[in-house]
What does this fold into?
Amino acid sequence: MFGKKKKKKQIEGKVKLQPLDFPAKVLSVWSEAISGDEKCLQVLLKSEYRALGLFVYALYLKEDARTWLLENGYAHLMAMINGVEGNKNAIAWLDVHGFHILKNMALSADGEAAGFQWLVDNNHKDMALISKKIEHLKDEIELNNNDVHRISRD
It folds into this structure.
């Protein structure tokens, strides 16, 4: 799905990266979980695709989910989230390590039309749509965090 790598990839002597090869049906469930479908989120969390469920929690700024992704071989997913949040170093890391789909998903979800267009032009329309769902969620989270009428939960 995100790359052609089937084996874990070791980068810079750190935790080996898990392969990102998910069936279309799982990507559909992930997409719905990103859109707020709690049932789909729970399905992911209770399956072998737990990382995709924790990805959703990490989008919601849950530190324990972010830590889990990093410690369990999903630093590339965490880099994508950081890229969505505007971290240019994360975008560069994804690019240097050959995660071009994740890089362009991050760019698209951060509002850059070129990232979305790259996904479409390179036959990753499903990832382009997921990136737009991530963008919508990110914008919603930012709006809620900046709402002066909300009481901080911290």
User: Anything to note?
Assistant: The CA atoms of residues 106 and 112 lie 9 Å apart.
